[in-house]
């Protein structure tokens, strides 16, 4: 194998999260196009143990209400709860990433979460490559009952967070991603 120039390699290195996005969003047809590609992520036994839910409009407000409720139940004051309520309003489109655990004698739950996370990573990369601003976010309330209820999750489902999606604001510097010190993250056993 030679180190040929690769569009994929460059796209992976170029991807950056956008914490601020504009109101423009991809439509459902575009999300489905990207998801068809992301769905090819490695998946032990082909269980497809995941689904993605688009949250637009008032659904984001219901999610904010659930965030605020969970915060209040955890002892947050009114200001902190209000801050939680506004969090889903940071983008016009949130893609909730759900792991849908399948009954399987050989594929454990952690493997199914890994497969679902793979889809989410690919989807984030594809959104970035298509020119959208995207950022995968979670939070303390991610696995709470009120938040699960907003999404209509089943008993064998759990959230892996949300990909916040929008347009890219002008004037944001997009620096190439720093990579890790491979001496700490890579080794060879023979
Ligand atoms: C499962 C998951 C949850 C995350 N949750 C948050 C979050 O709640 N808040 C946050 O600032 N970053 C969160 N991140 C990290 C961002 O998505 C992003 O990777 C980080 O800001 C670094 O930016 P970069 O993607 O440009 O390297 C999360 C990442 C993953 C994989």
Outline the secondary-structure elements.
Blueprint: H1 7-14, H2 28-38, E1 50-56, H3 58-73, H4 78-86, E2 93-100, H5 109-129, E3 133-137, H6 145-151, E4 157-166, H7 182-185
Antiparallel strand pairs: 1-2, 2-4, 3-4
Helix pairs in contact: 2-5, 3-4, 3-6
The structure holds flavin mononucleotide.
Do you know the CATH topology? NADH Oxidase
What portion of residues is helical? 40-55%
Q: Rg, please?
A: 18 Å
In DSSP terms (H or I, runs of 4 or more residues), the helix count works out at 7
Spatially, the strands of the biggest sheet line up as 1-2-4-3
User: What is the CATH homology-level superfamily?
Assistant: NADH Oxidase
User: Which ligands, by name, code or SMILES, are bound?
Assistant: flavin mononucleotide
Provide an overview of this structure:
Keywords: Flavoprotein, FMN, NAD, NADP, Oxidoreductase. This is Putative NAD(P)H nitroreductase. Belongs to the nitroreductase family. Its EC number is 1.-.-.-. Its cofactor is FMN. By secondary structure, the chain is of the alpha+beta class. It has a single domain, classed as NADH Oxidase, CATH 3.40.109.10. Helix content is 40%, strand content 16%. The protein has 7 helices and 4 strands; from the N terminus they run ααβααβαβαβα. It has helices spanning 7-14, 28-38, 58-73, 78-86, 109-129, 145-151, 182-185, and strands spanning 50-56, 93-100, 133-137, 157-166. Strands 1-2-4-3 form a 4-stranded antiparallel sheet. α3 (58-73) packs antiparallel against α4 (78-86) and α3 runs antiparallel to α6. The longest helix has 21 residues, at 109-129. The chain is globular. The two termini are 21 Å apart. Bound molecules: flavin mononucleotide (FMN). Flavin mononucleotide is lined by residues 16-17, 135-139, 160-161, 177.
């Amino acid at each position: 194998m030679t180190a040929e120039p690769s569009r994929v390699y460059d796209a992976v290195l170029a991807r950056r999260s956008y914490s601020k996005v504009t109101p423009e969003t991809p439509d459902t047809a575009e999300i489905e196009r990207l998801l068809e590609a992301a769905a090819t992520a490695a998946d032990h036994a082909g269980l497809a143990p995941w689904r993605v839910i688009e949250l637009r409009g008032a659904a984001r407000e219901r999610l904010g209400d659930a965030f605020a409720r969970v915060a209040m139940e955890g002892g947050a004051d009114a200001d902190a709860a209000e801050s939680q309520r506004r969090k889903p309003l940071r983008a016009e489109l949130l893609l909730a990433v759900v792991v849908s655990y399948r009954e399987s004698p050989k594929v454990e739950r952690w493997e199914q979460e890994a497969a679902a996370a793979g889809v989410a990573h690919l989807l984030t990369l594809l959104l970035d490559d298509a020119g959208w601003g995207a950022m995968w976010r979670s939070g303390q309330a991610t696995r709470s009952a009120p938040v699960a209820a907003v999404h209509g999750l089943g008993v064998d489902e759990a959230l892996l967070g949300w990909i916040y999606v929008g347009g890219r604001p002008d004037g944001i510097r997009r620096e190439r991603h720093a990579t890790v010190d491979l001496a700490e993250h890579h080794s060879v056993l023979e």
